[in-house]
Amino acid sequence: MKNIGMGTGRRKTSVARVYIRDGKGQLMVNDKDINEYFATPEQVQKAKEPLMVTAGESKYDIIITVRGGGLTGQAGACSHGIARALAQVDASNHASLKANGLLTRDSRMVERKKFGQRGARRRFQFSKR
């Protein structure tokens, strides 16, 4: 099999390296099947979203290495990486992926905790007396 595409996806603190080859639709995440790796069907669906948009579910074998963050962030990183790799493989995919917002990096990060407060926004309980 020929290695035909590569993409890097990021979400929160997760980073996914995605390798695409011609194949029958096998999807491996960290040497496990995607349904085995992710805990919920929603996470699997999020990761597979670019394949559904481009109708490429049975065209390619995809190998993903993902590190950092939790499972939801990793699913988002996988989705971003797959979208970038599909756009690289076939330029005709680019428009549909862009229209569905799959090529855009989700830049939302956890807001830092501030000193003198309980959390990022939450204050300590206020007492008048």
UniProtKB/TrEMBL annotation:
Keyword annotations? Ribonucleoprotein, Ribosomal protein
Q: Which GO terms describe its biological process?
A: translation
Identify one Pfam family in the record. Answer: Ribosomal_S9
Where on the tree of life does the source sit, at the highest rank?
Bacteria
PROSITE patterns registered for this protein in UniProt: RIBOSOMAL_S9
SUPFAM superfamilies found in the cross-reference section: Ribosomal protein S5 domain 2-like (SSF54211)
> What are the recorded GO MF terms, alphabetically?
RNA binding; structural constituent of ribosome
Q: What Gene Ontology terms describe where this protein resides (cellular component)?
A: cytoplasm; small ribosomal subunit
Could you tell me which InterPro entries the record lists for this protein?
Ribosomal_Su5_D2-typ_SF, Ribosomal_uS9, Ribosomal_uS9_bac/plastid, Ribosomal_uS9_CS, Ribsml_uS5_D2-typ_fold_subgr
> Which family is this protein grouped under?
Belongs to the universal ribosomal protein uS9 family.
Write the protein's name: Small ribosomal subunit protein uS9
